């Protein structure tokens, strides 16, 4: 950590060049002898990456940034705040602190938060940034979180862990057994030192397979932001061995779409099937990731078009965790039949359909955009259909 980067002149230079082309900046020359130009470029690139993801850091003065990979791997403020709101208690230890975003928000909900990070430089950076952010209730440990937990040797209300999803060659991994530390190995240690454990995993992780890997699962949170799944959060509770709840949340700009169901009930939930009725519903990404295909139909009393289509329909307009459409017309998938509709511009979606969106656009000569929404899918009798909709 080169503290010269925090000099007023260098900080002003970084802030005034956030939108400057880096190549032209290097070509022009960076006028500071006591700091490597590449380090300043790294600060510019990292800070720029934080503008929307980490506005608290971006807008604060004298923040020191690590390389962009650390920024990419850290939680956004949106998801970090979501996690913090799950925590009730006096103490929490973050075993894999990283850039310290999660620990920062946890500290707002606890009296004491312990941040552990094995990387010495990153730990120094975070400790400095906490001072810049006026945080006083986070204790920083520059060591392996597992070792710190054993050394401290006391019970916490919460343990939080976000295992590294990079292998020794820096390639991305997502299976629990491939991440560092391997949480499967340390589950016994976790429940010894905390009643509640929160584990953040990759959104690519298979939920059914992970269910068998983790013990004491109380709740799984599937978090999406603007319909993109960002995190799976596994909440473990000491002595919990019952069927666990899955809570899906799609965080939008002005609202949240939330749906809950019990994991074991999904396979037994009954769903009705129907031809397209008056309204069409497309589940959000969090619900699709959670696999709540039968539970959503059963709870909301709406019909499904086909077992594998994951589109739903009803005669009455309902609140729904996803997009809602008014069905204008349904036709068979046929080039001549479609041509009669005179549609040459539309938003195209496929569900359980043999052709891709690009293939459909090419075949039917449809440009992207406009106010018409076309769903290419398969109905209950396995006929290929086109549902023409307007968005609600």
Straight-line distance between termini: 52 Å
Compute the gyration radius: what is it? Answer: 25 Å
Indicate the low-confidence ranges by residue numbers: none
**Broad structural category:** alpha/beta
Strand content: 25-35%
How much helix is in the residues?
Answer: 25-40%
Major sheet summary line: 9 strands, mixed
The CATH homologous superfamily of the largest domain is named Vaccinia Virus protein VP39
Which of globular, elongated, flat, extended, rod-shaped describes the shape?
globular
Number of helices: 15
Tally of individual domains: 3
CATH topology call of the largest domain: Rossmann fold
Please, what is the average pLDDT?
93
Which CATH C-level class of the largest domain is it?
Answer: Alpha Beta
Secondary structure layout:
Layout (H helix, E strand, L loop, with lengths): L7 H9 L5 H7 L8 H17 L1 H5 L8 H6 L3 H8 L6 E4 L6 H6 L5 E5 L3 H13 L5 E4 L3 H8 L3 E6 L21 H11 E8 L5 H7 L3 E9 L2 E10 L7 E7 L4 E7 L16 E5 L1 H6 L2 H8 L2 E2 L7 E3 L7 E11 L2 H5 L5 E7 L5 H8 L2 E12 L5 E8 L1
Parallel strand pairs: 1-2, 1-4, 2-3, 4-5, 6-8, 14-15
Antiparallel strand pairs: 5-7, 6-7, 8-9, 10-12, 10-13, 11-12, 13-16, 15-16
């Amino acid at each position: 950590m080169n503290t010269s980067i925090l000099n007023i002149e260098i900080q002003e230079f970084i802030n005034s060049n956030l939108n400057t082309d880096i190549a032209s900046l290097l070509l022009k020359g960076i006028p500071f002898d006591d700091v490597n130009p590449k380090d300043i470029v790294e600060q510019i690139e990292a800070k720029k990456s934080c503008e929307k993801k980490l506005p608290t850091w971006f807008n604060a003065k004298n923040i020191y940034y690590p390389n962009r990979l650390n920024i990419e791997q850290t939680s956004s403020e949106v998801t970090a705040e979501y996690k913090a709101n799950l925590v009730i208690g006096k103490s929490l230890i973050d075993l894999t602190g990283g850039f310290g975003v999660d620990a920062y928000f946890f500290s707002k909900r606890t009296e004491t938060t312990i941040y552990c990070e094995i990387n010495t430089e990153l730990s120094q950076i975070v400790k400095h940034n906490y001072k810049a952010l006026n945080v006083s209730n986070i204790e920083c440990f520059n060591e392996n979180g597992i070792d710190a937990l054993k050394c401290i040797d006391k019970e916490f209300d919460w343990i939080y862990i976000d295992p590294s999803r990079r292998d020794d060659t820096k390639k991305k991994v997502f299976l629990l057994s491939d991440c560092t530390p391997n949480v499967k190995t340390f589950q016994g240690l976790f429940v010894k030192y905390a009643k509640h454990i929160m584990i953040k995993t990759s959104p690519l992780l298979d939920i059914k397979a992970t269910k068998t890997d983790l013990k004491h699962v109380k709740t799984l949170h599937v978090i999406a932001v603007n319909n993109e799944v960002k995190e799976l959060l596994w909440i473990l509770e000491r002595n919990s061995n019952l069927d666990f709840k899955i809570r899906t949340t799609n965080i939008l700009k002005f609202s949240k779409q939330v749906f809950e169901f019990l994991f074991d009930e999904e396979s037994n939930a009954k769903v009705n099937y129907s031809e397209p009725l008056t309204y069409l519903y497309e589940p959000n990404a969090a619900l699709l990731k959670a696999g709540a295909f039968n539970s959503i139909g059963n709870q909301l009393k709406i019909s499904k078009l086909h077992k594998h289509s994951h589109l739903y329909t009803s005669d009455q307009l309902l609140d729904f965790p996803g997009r809602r459409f008014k069905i204008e017309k349904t036709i068979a998938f046929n080039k001549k039949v479609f041509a009669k509709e005179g549609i040459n511009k539309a938003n195209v979606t496929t569900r359980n359909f043999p052709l891709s969106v690009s293939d459909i656009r090419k075949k039917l000569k449809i440009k992207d955009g406009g106010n018409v929404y076309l769903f290419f899918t398969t109905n209950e009798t396995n006929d290929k259909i086109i549902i023409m909709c307007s968005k609600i």
